[in-house]
């Protein structure tokens, strides 16, 4: 009886460990494929497999003059606004990208998020990177600035 209880306890602890540590290990494995000291341009450049048709974007510390700011649909003290960088990007999608970026825990490191488009009703992967102005690229040639 004690042996069965011990085996069951080890199994439950193993399952809890797998659930809590497994995603972190997968993320660390992905991060291990990246250079140890990436340059700013490599942080903001989308991976080649995401959408090779997108141009490589240089890092920005200020909102580009071609960006169109979006009216915020929710409040957040960290990144208060979003803007679209291409004509095919809707303002509603930009705000959803901002919401998804803020919901993940990584800041100042490149991340991939998934955001729903209120226009198309589809989900799109966006690669985001930056510090003061976060540039997110992906989807169907979408560019979103979160700042």
Key structural traits:
alpha+beta, plasmid, 2 domains, six-stranded antiparallel β-sheet, 20% strand
> What is the terminal-to-terminal distance?
59 Å
> Percent of residues in beta strands?
15-25%
**Number of DSSP strand runs:** 6
Strand order of the largest sheet: 1-2-6-5-4-3
Approximate helicity band: 25-40%
Instruction: Give the uncertain stretches in residue-range form.
Output: 29-50
Morphology call: elongated
The largest β sheet comes out as: 6 strands, antiparallel
Summed up, the helix count is 3
Structural class call reads alpha+beta
The radius of gyration computed from the alpha-carbon positions, rounded to a whole number of angstroms, is 19 Å
Query: How many domains in all?
Result: 2
Topology overview:
Elements: H1 2-32, H2 40-44, E1 68-70, E2 82-84, H3 91-103, E3 111-116, E4 123-129, E5 134-138, E6 142-146
Antiparallel strand pairs: 1-2, 2-6, 3-4, 4-5, 5-6
In short:
The chain is an alpha+beta fold.
Written overview of the protein:
Keywords: Plasmid. Residues 29-50 are annotated as: Disordered. This protein has 147 residues and is α+β, with helices and mostly antiparallel strands. The protein folds into two domains: 1-33; 40-146, no CATH class. It is 33% helix and 20% strand. It has three helices and six strands. It has helices at residues 2-32, 40-44, 91-103; strands at residues 68-70, 82-84, 111-116, 123-129, 134-138, 142-146. A six-stranded antiparallel beta sheet has the order 1-2-6-5-4-3, covered by helices on one side. The N and C termini lie far apart (59 Å).
